[in-house]
Amino acid sequence: MSAAVSPAPASSSMNRKRWHNLRNILERKGPFCKSDFTPSADNLEFLQNTCKILVIGAGGLGCELLKDLALMGFGDIHVIDMDTIELSNLNRQFLFRRNDIGSSKAECAAKFINKRIPTCQVTPHCAKIQDFDESFYQQFHIIVCGLDSIVARRWINGMLISMLNYNEEDGSVDASSIIPMIDGGTEGFKGNARVILPGYTACIECTLDLFPPQINYPLCTIANTPRLPEHCIEYVKIIQWDKENPFNCALDGDDPQHIAWIYERAMERANQFNITGVTYRLVQGVIKHIIPAVASTNAVIAAACATEVFKLATSCYDSMSNYMNFNDIDGIYTYTYAAEKSETCLACSNVPQVVNIEDPNTTTLEDLIKILCENARFQMKQPGITTMMDGKNKTLYMATVKSIEERTRANLTQSLGELGLKDGQIIMVADQTSPTTIALQLKYNANEVEMA
Ligand SMILES: [Zn+2]
């Protein structure tokens, strides 16, 4: 079969019927239309033949998004996903079948949609988002994310912000350089959908404190004063497994024998401390850091995201402003609020942000890196730091390149004063959470710096 995007294969009367409901919205004026909306048959034409959408992720949300967008008339969709299909995906990732296990999610999803909905052509990319540069992302009108990784979200957010142009006169964002990003996220029975106009509305980094850093229980609690079933499971995982080495191999979260072993030991420990709530499922969750995926939550969030894509693409209605929370743990609860753009946002504020340092004589470079990783504002993973000193670019520390790591390791235990970093100094930080290097300004609270 040919891969033609248009026209739709059916006869024109069939075709009219097929898009009847969309035409009602796109060819008539209504009280809620945006001011720049012109009712016309061209609107549907634009969705089918011109508008280019990128869907990031072909998992639980991605399958829903592709189906929704294709049925809403979008004709040109690209999808990126680096993962392959696993058996446990099949209960909710409905574009995949048992025979697809082991194949690329992006490719299988595209094949399914292209066959089933001939008015839509999906182009798959079995790759990481980091494999593409600005010129790739530039081609899309709207980007919609169904990701489970915060790092990936932050990266694409940073990419779209790095693509903004600013007007020379007043520093305002050039509206034509904005590619809207619709972001959906789900976690069990909770989900959210948001509309991000990079440079205009709150971005992912503006609201970074909404994502709590990943929980790591203190080892002393796990070892001595467990209070939660999770503490018992972590104890067996971290301490008992290594001590007893039951299967003479590393722990594999997908091996039911390993999970069963941990479950039994964790139960024993829980009984010892009168803790209830250790279940096989919880053991799986703690070991693999997974939260069960719920198909209905994905469906609701994807529908909300697809609706926002439709509204932005056609101007038929105002966009949601701008952050919707959804929860169906106990009945259904949802609300939408306008998340505010942060003046101190690392990604979109367009000025170097300040890192406050108590005392540069006692704060080591390692402490600074710890601040960048643990502070809710930064939440970096493995920051590499460089700075300008005496007109030269100097690498202070970089863990990602072995030779540089070895050469700069000794700096870790030196204080910022000893390293010659001054109050107000700009440091450049590279991290996997951003596609670009971020400029940060050191601000010392103690006045005197003893220079080495
Ligand atoms: Zn921001």
Automatic annotation (TrEMBL):
The record ties this protein, via InterPro entries, to: E2-binding (IPR014929), ThiF/MoeB/HesA (IPR045886), ThiF_NAD_FAD-bd (IPR000594), Ub_act_enz_dom_a_sf (IPR023318), Uba3_N (IPR030468), Ubiquitin-activating_enz (IPR035985), UBQ-activ_enz_E1_Cys_AS (IPR033127)
Role according to the record:
Catalytic subunit of the dimeric E1 enzyme, which activates NEDD8.
Instruction: Please provide the record's keywords in A-Z order.
Output: ATP-binding, Ligase, Nucleotide-binding, Ubl conjugation pathway
Protein's UniProt name:
NEDD8-activating enzyme E1 catalytic subunit
Q: Which family does the UniProt entry place this protein in?
A: Belongs to the ubiquitin-activating E1 family. UBA3 subfamily.
Which reaction is the catalytic activity of this chain? ATP + [NEDD8 protein] + [E1 NEDD8-activating enzyme]-L-cysteine = AMP + diphosphate + [E1 NEDD8-activating enzyme]-S-[NEDD8 protein]-yl-L-cysteine
- List the EC numbers from the record: 6.2.1.64
SMART domains, per database record: E2_bind
Q: Which residue ranges does the record assign to the E2 binding domain?
A: 357-445
Gene Ontology cellular component terms for the protein in this record:
cytoplasm; nucleus
Q: In which pathway does it act?
A: Protein modification; protein neddylation
Name of the gene this protein is made from = 106094881
Named from the GO MF annotations, one term is: ATP binding
GO BP of this protein: protein neddylation
Q: Any idea which residues are catalytic in this one?
A: 220 (glycyl thioester intermediate)
